[in-house]
Amino acid sequence: MLRAHTVEQVRTAEAALLARLPEGALMQRAAAGLAYAVLDLLGGGYGRRVLLLVGSGDNGGDALHAGAVLARRGVQVEAWLLSSSAHEGGVAALRGAGGRIGTPGPTGRLDVVVDGIVGIGGRPGLRPDAVAALAHVAGVPVVAVDTPSGVDVDTGEISGSHVTADLTVTFGTHKVCHLVDPAAQACGALQLVDIGLDLPEAPVEALQAADVAALLPRPAADAHKYTRGVVGVRSGSAAYPGAALLSVAGAACGLAGMVRYDGDPAALDLVRAAHPEVVGPGRVQAWVVGSGSDDGAEDALRAAVADGVPIVVDADALAFARLTRGRPAVLTPHAGELARLLGVERADVEARWLEHARRAAREHDAVVLLKGRHTVVARPDGRARVTTTGTPWLATAGAGDVLGGLVGALLATGLDPFDAASVGSWLHGAAATLAAQDGPIVASDVAAALPDLLATLTTR
Ligand SMILES: NC(=O)C1=CN([C@@H]2O[C@H](COP(=O)(O)OP(=O)(O)OC[C@H]3O[C@@H](n4cnc5c(N)ncnc54)[C@H](O)[C@@H]3O)[C@@H](O)[C@H]2O)[C@@H](O)CC1
Ligand SMILES: Nc1ncnc2c1ncn2[C@@H]1O[C@H](COP(=O)(O)OP(=O)(O)O)[C@@H](O)[C@H]1O
Ligand SMILES: [K+]
User: Fold this and answer.
1) Residue 438 above 90 pLDDT?
2) What ipTM was assigned to the predicted interfaces of this complex?
3) Residue nearest atom 35 of ligand 1, based on CA coordinates
4) Backbone angles phi, psi at 312, to 5 degrees
5) CB pairs under 8 A, 24+ apart, for 395-400?
6) How many whole angstroms separate alpha carbon 165 and alpha carbon 188?
7) Least CB-packed of 193, 256, 261, 411 within 10 Å?
């Protein structure tokens, strides 16, 4: 599991460790990890040129100490001190190792810029001198120390200017901004340096392949189709029969024991032709309702709610999400649908993904899966998982229908809504990446890639 902690949690853990270690030891660990990450990126040390952008705090201290390590490896290191003060030990270490302190201005060739302006102690935004310094080095690969300076570390929000990194080297644990957009997009690749922090449960996590493999339902030796779980699909309409096909394609991934289609008769023949294993109405352990349901969404959702089983509430059914209040449910809006649900602007949702997903989960007392580049799955108590699998090729019509069906199948097997939503979203993204190896994909390709993906996970 990739875990992201808050600044307060990191500070508390750091304080406990600092009390046990000799002075400066923690910063040395961080700086050494940072320096080796930069050397990896440079492919060596001798003759390379690195510029450090240094703020007034320990983030700048990390950059300076790492600069000293680099200088001892033959890297030409220059530091620009962007505040009236800078970490004294770090400045001395850099000078002692042969690095130099310079003044912002045009530079010759640079191989890497190290962003040590601010880390977890920074307020969002950058000061004009930092913006000006960055303008001198535009186009040079940037390694951010701990966080890209300027982003809001605990929310992943961005207000004002910030650094956009190619690589972010972070210490002890991930921070929320590393996972949640839009800040996550400013991090580039992530590298975690273990500095020995002892941390509590994380408020935000990202499933990894091993977590998904462990959570995936597998049939018991004596299983039959009903013990494995039956998923029912009420989606599609005369106007949108394709939505029925795609939700059923996601539901028919093989994880549940059976798929029932109980939607518009106009779509039934198409569903049967494409999926001969799908049967008609009857008892189910979970419902998927709403994609392409058109004006039948409310009735379809009411009927599903009357069954008392967990429900995936998608697309047209989201307008009636209040009907599932207090019942096990996963709401699957994209940003526009969540905006309508909460009565805010889409741009507000896209500026504050985590806050809005959490708010909707709390207000609807349900798990909310907010779809986007980094999908956020939030529980009513605020715990959240972010999906980091996927590819921009997944932004294709009908992809959400496949996801709804897949999450429904996982609910039917007995996974709780938080696990079903986050595992489903992870699989959906990973299947899209697999399908898009050779270029563009359509939604049905994502469903078609699921068996191969699941095979690699279930044999782990
Ligand atoms: N204490 C330690 O031994 C360790 C510290 N670590 C590093 O220390 C960092 C945290 O250090 P600090 O608590 O000193 O905080 P930072 O260095 O992140 O930033 C705080 C300083 O920046 C100034 N500042 C705040 N917002 C600003 C802005 N928008 N623009 C310009 N200046 C701004 C503040 O006045 C303050 O002096 C971590 O991110 C990490 O890099 C890690 O290496 C782990 C070990
Ligand atoms: N830029 C992106 N990168 C990766 N995945 C994306 C991106 N944009 C959207 N997605 C994913 O694509 C899917 C689109 O689903 P959705 O918006 O419901 O479309 P539709 O309603 O056409 O099915 C979601 O799973 C979402 O997380
Ligand atoms: K930084």
Assistant:
1) no
2) 0.94
3) 56
4) -90, 120
5) 396/441, 396/442, 396/443, 397/442, 397/443, 398/242, 398/243, 398/246, 398/442, 398/443, 398/444, 399/428, 399/432, 399/443, 399/446, 400/291, 400/314, 400/315, 400/332, 400/334, 400/371
6) 5
7) 193
- What is the token pair recorded at 369? 């899966």
Query: How remote is the CA of residue 161 from the centroid of ligand 2, in Å?
Result: 27
CA distances to 60, 102, 117, 170, 376 from 87, rounded to whole Å, are 7, 16, 11, 19, 37
C-alpha 358 – ligand 2 centre gap (Å): 19
Ligand 3 ion: nearby residues, β-carbon < 5 Å = 115, 119, 144-145, 149
Please give the domain boundaries of the chain with CATH numbers for all domains: 2-205 (3.40.50.10260), 209-458 (3.40.1190.20)
Tell whether ligand 1 has an atom less than 6 A from the beta carbon of residue 24: no
How many Cα atoms are found within 13 Å in the side-chain-facing hemisphere of 324? Answer: 36
Q: Which amino acid is at 133?
A: A
- Name the nearest CA neighbour of 119 among 38, 196, 54: 54
Tens-place pLDDT, residues 358-378 = 999 999 999 999 999 999 999
Nearest to 172 by CA among 399, 11, 344: 11
Question: Is residue 55 lining ligand 1, measured as CB closer than 6 Å?
Answer: yes
Q: Tokens 């697309």 — which residue?
A: 315
pLDDT over 90 (residue 460): no
pLDDT digits (tens, 9 = 90+) for 188-222: 999 999 999 999 999 999 999 999 999 999 999 99
Residues with CB under 6 A from ligand 2: 334, 371-373, 375, 390-392, 394-395, 397-401, 403, 428
Q: What is the pLDDT of residue 459?
A: 80
Question: What confidence category does residue 307 fall into, taking pLDDT thresholds of 50, 70 and 90?
Answer: very high
Q: Is 58 annotated as a binding residue?
A: yes
Confirm whether residue 96 is marked as ligand binding: no
